């Protein structure tokens, strides 16, 4: 099939995206006159379908994201960073998709599982499923600037909380401190339950941002160690750097909140994070958007899980789009997953309602997968339920 038959005409999409919002309230979020000037979401009527959310997102996000039928790193976004593409030829992004797709679920239907429990405990907070929004920043330079900062935070965090899980706020490399503070203020004003993702800035700058996040009442912190690869492209006044083992230990001691080091792709670095005292790690190649030509997260996860051997909490990301993707990652040993691109699209396609719709879709698909593999609870999911390529 030719590409032009897969994707809606860019010209027609852009033409359709100029509609303005009438002042209204969506999912408890008031759309102000200022927001109407900066956003092009049309009023939503009736009950949305997921396809409608995706179509709206496409209108909002081209050319930063084309909302392809299958998000596999092979669409028009190849090499678009900033944006939603992958670094270089997008092979790291593609590897995430391909390595996860290669894992297959073992169907089991002789058992007594009828209504599975998809919930987990996340450091004292019960959430409805092991899926959390990945901290994603850059509404202007990564997403096209069609949503204001407040709209985006309200969409991601409000929608995730509606679905019973955690939202997320990010500290973008190109964002000055006051932008980060405004995101946290939105969290605090609405009482959202969320995690916060920080960049590997200078130690003093990270610790300053940790303190601000603690005051917003968040649940946990992540630090994108993999963003250190962006040091050469960091904007003026924004320093990002790799971290030594001693620096990891300093950061762990700097906050009472659970701290995750994100961007871990090898067993030896997972071991260093465990020894630093971190609450957990995030197995991630940053969606293939920092270092080109990395393996996919599903390819490296089992060995990392075996090395950690239960000594810390393990999260993983990488092209999560369906509940079956969640079960695959859990069966390989992850405790929880992070979803990024698809939550961002849902936010642009339907604000908080769109995000909640996508989250509940994932939860329902996970429940079906658990029934058909014989898992009553999340803790029952194990490696016997998947076929992992040698």
By DSSP (H or I, 4+ residues per run), the number of helices equals 13
Number of domains: 1
User: How much of the sequence is in beta strands?
Assistant: 5-15%
**Given this structure, which CATH class is correct?**
Alpha Beta
CATH fold field value: TIM Barrel
Rg is 20 Å
User: What structural class do helix, strand and pairing data support?
Assistant: alpha/beta
Overall shape: globular
CATH architecture: Alpha-Beta Barrel
**Oligomeric description of these chains:** single chain
Estimate the mean pLDDT confidence. 88
Q: Would you count the extended β strands for me? A: 14
Helix content: 25-40%
Low-confidence stretches: 1-40
Calculate the terminal CA-CA distance, rounded to whole Å: 32 Å
Following the backbone from N to C, one meets helices and strands in this order, namely HHEEHHHEEEEHEHEHEHEHEHEHEHE
Biggest beta sheet summary: 8 strands, parallel
The largest sheet has its strands arranged as 6-13-12-11-10-9-8-7
What attributes characterize this protein structure?
alpha/beta; TIM Barrel; two-stranded antiparallel sheet; 13 helices; 13% strand; globular
Q: In terms of topology, how is this protein built?
A:
Layout (H helix, E strand, L loop, with lengths): L2 H4 L3 H7 L8 E2 L2 E2 L2 H6 L11 H12 L29 H12 L1 E2 L14 E3 L2 E3 L3 E3 L15 H14 L4 E4 L6 H14 L3 E5 L4 H13 L4 E5 L20 H9 L5 E6 L2 H9 L4 E4 L13 H12 L4 E4 L6 H9 L4 E4 L1 H31 L14 E2 L3
Parallel strand pairs: 6-13, 7-8, 8-9, 9-10, 10-11, 11-12, 12-13
Antiparallel strand pairs: 1-2, 3-14, 4-5
Helix pairs in contact: 4-13, 6-7, 6-13, 7-8, 10-11, 12-13
